[in-house]
Amino acid sequence: MTRKLFGTDGIRGLAGTKPMTPQVALQVGIAAGLVFRKDNHFERRRVVIGKDTRLSGYMIEPALVAGCTAAGMDVFLLGPIPTPGVAMLTRSLRADLGIMISASHNPFADNGIKLFGPDGFKLSDETEAEIERLVAADLTDKLSKPAELGRARRIEGVHDRYIEFAKRTLPRNIDLTGIRVVVDCANGAGYRVAPDALWELGAEVVKIGCAPDGFNINQECGSTDTAALRRRVHEVRADIGIALDGDGDRVIIVDERGEEVDGDQVMALVASSWHEDGRLTGGGVVATVMSNLGLERYLGELGLTLARTKVGDRFVVEHMRAHGFNVGGEQSGHIILSDYATTGDGLVTALQVLAVVQASGRPVSEVCRRFEPVPQVLKSVRTGRASLEAEGVKSAIAAGEGRLAGMGRLLIRPSGTEPVIRVMAEGDDQAVVEAVVGDIVDALSNVAA
After folding, report:
1. Nearest residue to 283 (alpha-carbon basis) of 325, 318, 335
2. Which position among 56, 102, 104, 332 bears the catalytic label?
3. pLDDT tens-digit readout, 32-46
4. 104 carries an active-site annotation
5. Domains and their CATH numbers in the chain
6. What are 277-334's pLDDT values in tens digits?
């Protein structure tokens, strides 16, 4: 069966159009409820539902509630809370299913549905395929009898539970007193928990992006646009800036000079620190094909490996679980620390960075710059996969591989969600890298034209 509903990170689209309509959300709720109810004979039938701050959450949430209760599932409503909080509470509340309503770092007009199993991990391809099959079917005769319908209630205190969970990932003696932090929550799901957690640990907290209005999530703020955070770090002379994305599963750090520290540098920092403490497992880090060659070389100097996967945090997590790694992530700031969480967690990752900074007594710009990234160029061409078969494109790719041999990497990646070919090259010589990407982009553009 060809998957039309689920992408690499759940279901996502423009709110009010398929698949992000109340009708589809209702069917997803019923289908997911049926899949996770069928093996427990009604002995345990709970689903937790969280969301970010998008206006369309008010449309999607009740539709999911109706679907889940119709399938006989009791619903625990969490309200706005980060995605990792939903994953954690799915396990903590002994639920069968966790649902997060969010389109992550996308603009407010988009929304999405992410599903987690009882272990807090995202669902397998097989389970998603079964849900998708049911969504397309007539489920009227599958609905619960009147006496077996589920109930829904809002759970209080979920923010406190998530804050305590995040704080417990640090040693008891960690005290952030004297550290001035600017935290940008992207007007998203972390707008309450992240500032409170940092304050409870003793930090002086300056908040931006913490006034959601349903429309301003990820708007000129958060991990995808750190300009406001960098300005604020300068203005208040902060020691560090922390930028989350709309659902709180990504983080980008800004040092005291107002310069970004991306996910590759964060993985290098955590991996080297845990390696020194004897806590790192798997012999290295798991990242995607997009991570900088500089990270791979840095880890190699420490005797550690960099395992690469396809783009997407689910592929990173799958490799980590299969091969025993406990640090992985993406350059974009989606960091998975599996000793603590089953998915990316921006707040927990930021706390790990702060712990290393506090222990070192040195500024963030020194602590978090573990390697010099090699020049990396990424460009996209709006064209289909078939363009890669053109002789001119094949020749340009072969020539580029030859020029980068021994001193860099070339990656040609068709997008999984739109007719776009992404061309990425990196290497020690900036001019060569730019020329290689330029030649391939020109060849693809000629075909597209």
Report:
1. 325
2. 104
3. 999 987 655 445 589
4. yes
5. 11-156 (3.40.120.10), 161-259 (3.40.120.10), 261-348 (3.40.120.10), 376-448 (3.30.310.50)
6. 999 999 999 999 999 999 999 999 999 999 999 988 999 999 999 999 999 999 999 9
